[in-house]
Amino acid sequence: MLKVKSVVKEFSGFRAVDECSFEVEKNTITGLIGPNGAGKTTMFNLIAGSLKLDQGEVYFSEQKVNNFAPHQIARLGLARTFQIPKTLRKMTVLENLMLVPSGQSGENIWNSWFRGAKVENEEKVNAAKAYETLEFLEMEHLADEMAVNLSGGQKKLLELGRALMAEPELILLDEPGAGVNPTLLNKIAENILKLKERGKTILLIEHNMDLIMNICDRVIVMNDGKHLVEGTPAEIKTNPQVLEAYLGEKTA
Ligand SMILES: Nc1ncnc2c1ncn2[C@@H]1O[C@H](COP(=O)(O)OP(=O)(O)O)[C@@H](O)[C@H]1O
Ligand SMILES: [Mg+2]
């Protein structure tokens, strides 16, 4: 589904990602872990097209997508969430979902002038999809709540919902469990497992080791911008190299 080959990204001479390679199998949940500053979020930005690679290759479903623009990669079926949720606070939960761009005719000025009926119909479909997404997340009761009033965990769920509106094949989640209370954390874990049941592929950055160990099929460990090791959660848990990397953690 996803292949990253010898990827390099430098920021003013500092190698944030250093010849990093890994693969993500279709219909799996893969964890991407490593100490702060290991290069995980930078790797997500490179995959999703929000940063340009200095070297290396990224393949999405066998197609080379090096330096595609974010919207081009999104159209191929990739969605991502951010470490800090990007919800639009002055809108309701439902509006936040309905606003996700999806190449509707309403975005085209000519269509909105000449094909009003089509746009209206698409808006209905879009609203139905947004409700369906809320149902999936078990957040229907919050449809008309202003996003600003949500708890941190609920914002994370909404962020996941926004990613799902694009009906992606591969979903990149950056720390979905950060700052989330245990009840909502379980819900996020359940939702990620449900997505896998629906055939989706998930790559997940997370510091909560219980979440990683409970839901991941495979775990990839990054350190100093490099691919350190990978394996099953049980293998990673007992790997001395991983322990050493975390003990040497710098605060980034
Ligand atoms: N835009 C940027 N400019 C300069 N340095 C950056 C930038 N983004 C990330 N870095 C640096 O790259 C390294 C990796 O960061 P990041 O990918 O955010 O790590 P992680 O997500 O694993 O904690 C860190 O040392 C960070 O300070
Ligand atoms: Mg990060």
From TrEMBL:
UniProt keyword ATP-binding, yes or no: yes
GO cellular component terms, A-Z: plasma membrane
Name the record gives this protein: Branched-chain amino acid transport ATP-binding protein LivG (TC 3.A.1.4.1)
GO molecular-function term, one example from the UniProt record: ATP binding
UniProt keyword list: ATP-binding, Nucleotide-binding, Transport
Residues covered by the ABC transporter domain: 2-249
InterPro entries per record: AAA+_ATPase, ABC_AA/LPS_Transport, ABC_transporter-like_ATP-bd, ABC_transporter-like_CS, BCA_ABC_TP_C, P-loop_NTPase
One Pfam short name: ABC_tran
Keyword Nucleotide-binding included in the entry's annotation: yes
